[in-house]
Amino acid sequence: MAILKAEGVEKVYSTQAEQVYALRKVNFEIKTGDFLMINGPSGSGKTTLLNLLSGIDQPTAGNIYLNQQPLRGLSDSERTVIRRDKIGLIFQSFELIPVLTVSENVEYPLLLQKMGHQQRQKRVKEVLEQVGLRELSKRLPSQLSGGQKQRVAIARALVTRPTIILADEPTGNLDSETGLKIIRLMLDLNRKYQVAVVIVTHDLTLNQYAQQIYQLRDGVLTQKGEIRDVEDRLA
Ligand SMILES: Nc1ncnc2c1ncn2[C@@H]1O[C@H](COP(=O)(O)OP(=O)(O)O)[C@@H](O)[C@H]1O
Ligand SMILES: [Mg+2]
Question: Which residue's C-alpha comes closest to atom 7 of ligand 1?
Fold first, then answer.
C-alpha cells in the first residue's frame, strides 16, 4: 500500500515574464521499504517534486496523499507537523545550523517535537551511532568534511524515525567515492529500519543501488528500470 502518493500532480510557476510548467501530470507512489531513484538533469523538476511530496509547496493541480490522507485539505501548520513527524528531508547543501554542534543539529527536530531531554539524548546518541558519527558529536559543521556533513544531515532526517526519507541530490556536493558511501549507508538504513528512501539525482552511477528507477525530463516522470532484488544491488 502506498504511504506517499502523487496523483496527476502538476506545478506551474507563474512569474511576471512567463509560466513555467515544472511538473506535468506526475503519478508516483512510495511504499514501505522502497528505495527509489529519480534521475533528471538540472531544471527537470526534481526539487519541485520533492517540495510537493513533502508538503513544503502545493501543486497547481492534482493531489498528494500521505497515508491515504490528501495534503490539500490541510492548513500550513498541519502540513508542517506532518513533514516534521513523517518525512525526513535531506537537502543538497546539507542546511546544517553553523552555530550548533553535530549532536545539537541532530537534536533540533526533536526539540521542535517537544520531546523530553532524556529521550532526546538517547535518540541522538542512537542515530549518530547508526551513521558512524559518534566520535564527532561535539564538532561544529565547519569542522567537518562534506561526507561527514551529509552524514549529519542524514542523522537529522532519521532522528524523528520518519517512514520516508526524501533526498535532493544527496551526493551532489561530494566526491564520487564519498557519494557512493553515502548511498550505501542510506541503503543499509533502508534495509535495517524499513524506511522508504527516494533519491533525486542527476548522477546515473547511483542507479546501481536503486530498486526502481524513474526518469524526470521537462517535468514528465516515466518509469525507467525494473524492480530489482536488494541482494543484486549490494553484490
Ligand atoms: N520559484 C520558482 N519560480 C519560477 N520558476 C521556478 C521556481 N522554482 C523552480 N522553477 C523552474 O521550474 C523548473 C524545475 O526546477 P527544479 O524543480 O528546481 O528542477 P531541478 O531540481 O531538477 O533542477 C525549472 O525550469 C526552474 O527554473
Ligand atoms: Mg534541484
Answer: 13
